[in-house]
Amino acid sequence: DFLRMQKQQITLTRALVPLLKAQGVFVYSTCSLEPEENEQVLRRLLADWPGLRLEQEQWSLPFRDGFDGAYAARLARTTQ
Questions:
Q1: What pLDDT score does 54 carry?
Q2: Least packed by Cβ within 10 Å: which of 18, 26, 39, 57?
Q3: Which pTM was predicted?
Q4: Residues 9 and 29: beta-carbon distance below 8 Å
């Protein structure tokens, strides 16, 4: 249920952002390759929190990497 999971992931990450110090970093990661759970969540967070900056994104692809698919994004808080 991608939309339900997306809502949960957005709720969780929205609770985290205010806890970050200025220049604080967190990694958003899933064991999914679905855009609804990854890029769409990330784009929404970046739109909602102008003080966040995407530093890096990475995908693990089963056919390329030889293990399950996954996604990770490193984000940093640029403001207090």
A1: 96
A2: 18
A3: 0.86
A4: no
